[in-house]
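Q: What does the assembled structure look like for these inputs?
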Amino acid sequence: MADFFAMGGYGTYIWPAYAVFLIVLAIDAIAPRLRRKRVLAEIRGKLRRRQAREATP
Amino acid sequence: MNALTLWFHKIGSPPTFYRIAGALAPWCFGIAIVLGALALYGGLVLAPRDYQQGDAYRIIFVHVPCAWMGLFAYGFMAVNAFIALIWRIKLSEVLAMASAPIGAAFTFITLVTGSIWGKPMWGTWWTWDARLTSELVLLFLYLGVMGLYHAIEDRRQAARAASFLALIGIVNVPIVHFSVNWWNTLHQGQTVRLMGESKISGDMVWPLLVMTLATHIWFFASVFARTRVGLLELEGGKDWARDVALSDAPRESPVTAHG
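A:
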């Protein structure tokens, strides 16, 4: 197991490279989910404001 | 209209595409993750050590698929940008703008992993040679497209301006691809070929190809997810987007559809 993580002495290069790959793609997957929440909240906010405007004569 | 044009218009309508993309995205993410895990196992555990580079070459299994994706995403963006500029199809504008950050992400991974690979093999993190420099320009083009898109207030005008920049930037794509042939460079030449024999052994090449497939599927998963959000943003005033927004919010103060 230790052998596997050592990667023939190149472990200090290989694992950070793979970490960058996984972290950047994880961010790529999460980013649209966060933006979706924000966009939907904005649409509801606009709708609420419009309703409030229409409710007051 | 004939049946094909009709079908095309139907797919291209925002609510329809929103629904289809929503059904496909989770499957694409799932398949990409399973294939990616398989490729990682093949690349890190099963593939033999390289006779020249030792284990350091294993960075290839993330570096090369991401490099290909950086170019593929640019092609996808440029085709959609072209359609957006000529026919002004809303969906194409959103698709083009959705692919820019994904392409930027893959190009960023390529640059960083390449740099990490370069240190033990070439003795330097960075050098201003043709392949590396043109790849950096590719990243800047993506960032330029994204920046221009966010700098203009009107979303549709912004998408068209950014699409125009994306089309101009396509001149860089062949430069990246052929740079290792056109100039003397530290970067190694092409080892995997579609036509003819690859200069890489079979037990090394299958994890590479599986990872390539995984990243392509991942790209479409991410494009679908981002395009859905982009369509909601663009069509926020339309009924279908309101329905999505209302059915999404169970815990906020009540808003009724017919206020």
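Residues 14-46 of chain B form the longest helix (33 residues).
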